[in-house]
Amino acid sequence: MPRKRVTLADVARRAGLSTTAASMILNGRPDTRLSKEAHERVHAAAAELGYRPNVAARGLRTAKTLTIGFVSDTVTTTRFAGGLIKGALEAAEEARHVVLLAETGGESEREAEAIAALLDRQVDGIVFATVRARELFVPALPEGVPAVMLNATSSRFPATVLPDEEPGGRAAVRLLVDAGHSEGIALIGQSDTAERDVFRSRTIARRVAGIRGEMADKGLGFVAEESIWMWEPQHGYDAVLDLLRRRTDVRALLCMNDRLAFGAYQAAAELGLRVPDDLSVVSFDDDEVAAYLRPGLTTIGLPHEAMGRRAVELLLGREPAGEELVPMPVVERASIGPPRGR
Amino acid sequence: MPRKRVTLADVARRAGLSTTAASMILNGRPDTRLSKEAHERVHAAAAELGYRPNVAARGLRTAKTLTIGFVSDTVTTTRFAGGLIKGALEAAEEARHVVLLAETGGESEREAEAIAALLDRQVDGIVFATVRARELFVPALPEGVPAVMLNATSSRFPATVLPDEEPGGRAAVRLLVDAGHSEGIALIGQSDTAERDVFRSRTIARRVAGIRGEMADKGLGFVAEESIWMWEPQHGYDAVLDLLRRRTDVRALLCMNDRLAFGAYQAAAELGLRVPDDLSVVSFDDDEVAAYLRPGLTTIGLPHEAMGRRAVELLLGREPAGEELVPMPVVERASIGPPRGR
DNA sequence: TGTCGGCGCTAAAACCTTTTAGCACGACGG
DNA sequence: CCGTCGTGCTAAAAGGTTTTAGCGCCGACA
């Protein structure tokens, strides 16, 4: 490796031209009238010396750093944020951008710190992501710095990328109906009567609306609705175990997420019920565990990677901002079967 | 938000001093002999204007950007990298640094691209991480740019952070022995006879050495060793199901990772065996699923977060480089019990 | 009497790039 | 012969910071 980084001046010197000329040629400015051979000499010199422009110096002049900031509340819990980040990273890479990562842990003080740190580095834009879709209060940014919300919303920034939950909810119901279920379907994790007027999140509300809408369209109703606050396996286990002991007419479970479904599997096993023979299960997220379960869990996936990608495309593109809904994929595995007596 | 960013010149002007003076005062240079009141005026002006130094411009002069690069092969598979990144992020934040993330997917071409992109942004150092600990071929970096390997090794860079696998392996064995197991212990995922001379990774080799060392010290041997290539639930399930059908004297499973243990749980359930009454299980990683299983899986954790943190501390500190081993925590849950007949 | 160092500060260079303004020169139209 | 235009290129400024070199004055010291 060279001792010193080679600079534009080095290239220009070697080509026998001014740095201005070298700059213009390397940046392919259209209106210039430098000679053919000047072009050749500069390109040759740059190649021979292995010249790479200093992005920091360029940024100083142009106020563009080819760098975007990604601030999320949590990067680690589950691998949710991982998918968002991966998609963002890929889209950024394609646009020859690079991403600065910052984590806030949900604390607004750290968030302010993080934003300032990013701004100090002259980022070209910022995407704000949350792991559980929610309204985020984001301080104003200096003008000229665009922002897009990822799996979150903000009154300040209209550009938003969210999963398209309503059709997702409908799809889940349809999977059960198409398999022949019409009675004995229980909803796990959400109960309108128990949670009336409680705010979970905008996206969850839409998911529920989709589910109820599709049930209504088919003229169906749930045989039971279990309200669960924390959507973790333990609570899914408790609630489903209780439910299945109380009622013997439950044939299918519509779980609000995969971790609840995970607990439901455990409860079913406890009672000697087989999935999907005795009990069909469908849920949401396409979490890592969904593939590990046996039989594999059929689920409506959260399209994290696509969302992350879309967010930076929106940030970098000059499209008018708005709410963008990314379709949720149906991931069919083996947890749904035809209804059977028990 | 202000229309234009306030610059050092603005502060100096308002304080009635030169930018030089303002710079010296704000940076707290020790040898300077500017007056007390000059200090006050400058600090007051900076505070009133909300001045923040332009890190890019400063970096141009000082060749320090308070930015470090984090290049990993995969950011998303499992949430492994997530822990590494989180630790790194926290340590960086404490040192007022910020991290530039790049992903290579393991392809050396993308890696070279990523490194160049980071270097173009004048990062102060780079940490190279892999998800599965392995030797990484890293191209030379320009001098003055330090690097540390995280969960990976490189012949070029001696600074390395790895989990301390040998004691980890010993601890796993000790957990079983302390619970009273001496016979009927099976090793799942690794078989020396089947995999002689096969290279998995440096860390896995040490884990195995620890396991065998401790077994030998206690005068014990495995009742069976199942070689498994892909450490995924499906394969754990297949191997353990087969094993438990073949032999009825297996009382404890030492699994090479939590996903294999997950499969083992499923196999045990299939055969009507209860964990830990009929079968004790211990494994490695403290993966997310370990807490979801019932009973909770006792496991030797991979200290990802501490490793990530240590890596940037090493990168930023001026300590002499070497191999640093981070202790693996014993995470006791409920999957180990006293041996019992079957 | 000459020199030296301390004082409190500043002008200018340096970092690397892009952008603006313009130079010298020849050709060409009127 | 004068003005204009096109050609191929460069000097210099700009962007925001840090660093180096030094200025003008005064008191102390040899």
From TrEMBL, chains A, B:
Residues in HTH lacI-type domain copies: 6-62
PROSITE patterns assigned: HTH_LACI_2
Key words, A-Z: DNA-binding, Repressor, Transcription, Transcription regulation
Coiled coil, from the record: none
Keyword Transcription regulation: yes
SMART domains: HTH_LACI
Any one Gene Ontology molecular-function term assigned to this protein's record: DNA-binding transcription factor activity
Pfam families listed in its UniProt record: LacI (PF00356), Peripla_BP_3 (PF13377)
Descriptive protein name: Substrate-binding domain-containing protein
Organism: Streptomyces calidiresistens
Taxonomic lineage from the root: Bacteria, Bacillati, Actinomycetota, Actinomycetes, Kitasatosporales
